[in-house]
Amino acid sequence: MTGISSMPPDVILEILVLLSDFATLSAAIRTCKRLYETFQFRSLLITHAVLRNAAGPALVDAERLDYYGCVHSLPEEGHLESAEWKLTRDAAARMERRGRDVLFLENFFSLRYKDRTSLSSRLDAIEELRFHRAIYRYWLCYEILQYDALREQDSDFEDDDEDEDEDNYQDIHPDDLGLNKEQRRARDALCDALVTSSSEELFELVEICTFLKDTEIWHGRAVAPTSPIQPVPYWTTVNPEKLVASLQTRQMRTDQYDSSGQHELVSNAARKLLRAHKIPHERVSQARPKAILTSVSGADDRCSRCHAICGTDLFGSTNMYLLSGILPFSEQLALLPGLLHRNRDEVRLLDQYVRNHGNPIPVDVRIRQMMELEPDGDDADYEHWSKDEWYCLDCIKTLLRLRFMLWWREEKQKSGVTLQDDCWYGYNCRTMTHKSSHALKLNHLCKPTRGDAPNVTPANNAPVGTT
Ligand SMILES: [Zn+2]
Ligand SMILES: [Zn+2]
């Protein structure tokens, strides 16, 4: 640290305010006396600067959320900027933690909607600010609803005479359709919290509601490998913190769907305020307003195989893993040729293999292996695939139709299984779908040599297999 000892205090200050988080700051001031002295002298300025680096560009929204979490009311205007408000170590740690969660979501958002070629966010400074403030406002709404629900439980005995009068109004406002009294009250509490938001910020919030909901649905599909996909009700709560934890651990959190109405209430509140801002109805009712991104990288990019313009919906090495929630395993199975997906014994073996004792083989790995196959003879498909190219979902499905069965046959052989004799009816064999002894006795991962021609439509033309 001799270099630092001779640095002017201004330079040391410049270094400290650039540190990305409090762990680094703490380590730095413990290792060097000069750094420690500078920190002591300008601790408030340095702590706030590091907090800004750790919590992201929407610091005021992050602070508002933290304030609400502590006292269950919103700060007076200007309070967070005043000397009355002191940043405590605990508050800084909480905001830093939330900042990491928000960054995680930003990276995911960026990969899906901004730049499919990068796992870390490519949002520009303005887009990042919009994303962060919207997430923090959503999160604040989530906390308000949680607190409101708790209060609601405590005050169940209250008389609702006043509200009954309200229900007699002849013109129910469109914002209130489908909401009961409690939900309307909770929604109005959100409107109070959001009342200072501009129209632009409210549109960002509506977009974030849709993004979080879509991400939750994507995750639900990705973690249900072969079981039928469980429908995720539109109105379920999205808890940003739990969503991030689920995405990181790839586990379904059973307590994620423990409440009702809240997602809908956040966007409902934002839409109600937008109507109050006299925004035209058509704009307010948009499901996904494009409010966060100014531009999208590769928006006009084409599929390498079919040349369709698919932009961010193209899949390549960085984002192929997203297929786990877009084309879940149960839907991949349906792309096996003929009647194979109805061969329960084969599907069970394949499922066990892919699950791999709790350490599943990810879809992007399987897709890459299928691309690298070099089928010849009867299996030749004369297709060229490359992991360095970008493909649309339809072409990925074509790859699975052509090579999923071949891949599985090769994987079986590689793992030491000796394939039985081919059944004459191959993947079109009907007997394998209802007779386990037959399904297990012969190999069906092959083209039919008898019966109908290969690739018949199973539903209409499946041959009657014999044993
Ligand atoms: Zn294509
Ligand atoms: Zn058969």
Automatic annotation (TrEMBL):
<dbReference type="GO" id="GO:0016567">
    <property type="term" value="P:protein ubiquitination"/>
</dbReference>
<dbReference type="GO" id="GO:0006511">
    <property type="term" value="P:ubiquitin-dependent protein catabolic process"/>
</dbReference>
<dbReference type="GO" id="GO:0004842">
    <property type="term" value="F:ubiquitin-protein transferase activity"/>
</dbReference>
<feature type="compositionally biased region" description="Acidic residues">
    <location>
        <begin position="155"/>
        <end position="169"/>
    </location>
</feature>
<feature type="signal peptide">
    <location>
        <begin position="1"/>
        <end position="28"/>
    </location>
</feature>
<dbReference type="GO" id="GO:0005634">
    <property type="term" value="C:nucleus"/>
</dbReference>
<feature type="region of interest" description="Disordered">
    <location>
        <begin position="155"/>
        <end position="176"/>
    </location>
</feature>
<protein>
    <recommendedName>
        <fullName>F-box domain-containing protein</fullName>
    </recommendedName>
</protein>
<dbReference type="InterPro" id="IPR052256">
    <property type="entry name" value="E3_ubiquitin-ligase_CHFR"/>
</dbReference>
<dbReference type="InterPro" id="IPR036047">
    <property type="entry name" value="F-box-like_dom_sf"/>
</dbReference>
<keyword id="KW-0732">Signal</keyword>
